[in-house]
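anyone seen this seq b4? input:
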Amino acid sequence: MKKGYLKYLFFIPALFVLAGCSKPYSEALPTVQVTSVEAYGVADSVLITGTVTSQGGGPIQYEGFSFSNTPTFDLLSRQVVGSSGSATFRAVLPAYHDSTFYFEAFAANEYGYAVSKPYAYTVPAAKPDSAPCTLRSNSFTIGSNTYSLSGISTNPSPSFGSYEVSASFSGGFYNYDVYFNQLPTNGIYSVLT
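predicted toks r here
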């Protein structure tokens, strides 16, 4: 047998062995999915959970979420990045009540990153606040004294803060002004002075 043919006998099997060791690029990337989204706490937030279903050709370097209130969005515009190292990862994200948000999970290894399918979630409307006691209508309590109100007025452009509520007491002996940093919601407020 000639020496030239002998080289080819070793070269051809080596090609088959090397070709069998490499994965296609799509299999080298991780796969990830959003597994759940749920309302979180009393603020405008959601708890989102993602799962790395396959790490692909290498260990996961980082994972996270991207989100928007429009169905098509840039992955980089609003995102939270983590590096938990576990298959399941979570984050608390801001989301307005009674609005639909779109979430995507992503994960990266040394070959690149992969993005999940979009996950749509409508944040439920906020539950009304409840007071720990029964409140008397048209009244204002200062310390242990409760006064009857003759009127309430509001001012969206006060000299202090962002919103003002003024209470006038029966008999006209004085007004009580409360300044808020934002538009107030129903509830019980404690004031410092």
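The chain has a mean pLDDT of 79. The radius of gyration is 31 Å. kinda curious what u guys think
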